[in-house]
Write a structure and sequence with these properties.
Shape: globular
CATH topology of the largest domain: Rossmann fold
Number of strands: 9
Radius of gyration: 18 Å
Order of helices and strands: EHHHHHHEHEEEHEHEEEH
Strand order of the largest sheet: 3-2-1-7-8-9
CATH superfamily of the largest domain: TPP-binding domain
Strand content: 15-25%
Bound molecules: 2'-O-acetyl adenosine-5-diphosphoribose
Oligomer: single chain
CATH architecture of the largest domain: 3-Layer(aba) Sandwich
């Protein structure tokens, strides 16, 4: 049984109907990162930020896992699989993957602005609308915010993610432009001798990484094909 570590980004959920960030028509082409995904943006216009994530949460809850998510879950039949995702949707979990580390947070969760350890499932806050608004509060009476890592904030799971990479026997990257750090540096934590593969219709540049090959394909084609090989 090999330890297969998979780093995924928005591209793996693209064929489930969720927008990526930096492709043509991606979220950051039509929306301002500073206004919607930073602590300063939240201070300036909290309702705008909450509305943005309320909508994204709704879309993510309606989306279904695709063949790439499902294939990665099947890979557990033969291997130990650790998924490190930059995605805030829960499509890996719903596909059946049992070890999913969310580097950038989760849309299904919200947390207190006063105590970051007070994290709630949105289902327990508002099971009907799955929304939070200005005035939605935690048990301390403080405003709730999305459980999302915004630009300029620490990435609390980074150390755990790096530790997984260090013990990989095979490292797979799917659907990320590798433009955002520290996530993009995880590949440098994988031992040099370990084989690494990138599946993406537009392969990102990864300087100075040994034993790396790429499959220039969409996730729903490339991932099931590779998984089939790894299960053989
Ligand atoms: P990007 O939008 O930067 O990159 C998406 C990647 O997916 C690109 O390399 C595309 O070529 C690829 N792609 C598009 N369609 C695909 C498909 N069908 N199959 C496979 N790949 C496909 O998204 P991320 O790299 O995930 O952070 O972005 C990283 C972070 O930036 C996000 O987590 C988010 C964003 O700002 C936060 O919100 C904190």
């Amino acid at each position: 049984m090999a330890h297969i570590v998979v780093l995924t980004g928005a591209g793996i959920s693209a064929e489930s109907g969720l927008k990526t960030f930096r492709d043509l028509g991606g979220l950051w082409e039509t929306h301002s990162v500073e206004d919607l995904a930073s602590p300063a943006g939240f201070r300036k216009n909290p309702q705008l930020v909450l509305d943005f994530y309320n909508l994204r949460r709704k879309q993510a809850l309606q989306a279904q896992p695709n063949a790439a998510h499902l294939a990665l879950a099947q890979l557990e039949q033969k291997h130990r699989v650790s998924i490190i995702t930059q995605n805030v949707d829960d499509l890996h979990e719903r596909a059946g993957s049992s070890s999913v580390l969310h580097l950038h947070g989760e849309l299904r969760k919200v947390r207190s602005t006063q105590d970051p350890n007070l994290i709630y499932d949105i289902q327990d806050i508002d099971p009907e609308t799955h929304e939070i608004h200005v005035g939605s509060t935690c048990e301390l009476g403080a405003q709730l915010r999305p459980h999302i890592v915004w630009f300029g904030e620490m990435v609390p799971e980074m150390e755990n993610a790096a530790a997984l990479c260090q013990t990989a026997d095979f490292f797979l990257v799917v659907g990320t432009s590798l433009m955002v750090t520290p996530a993009a540096t995880l590949i440098y934590h994988v031992p040099e001798k370990v084989r690494k593969c990138i599946i993406d219709p537009q392969i990102p540049e990864v300087p100075k990484v040994k034993n790396l090959y790429s499959i220039e394909e969409k996730a729903t084609l490339g991932v099931p094909r590779l998984v089939e090989q790894l299960l053989r």
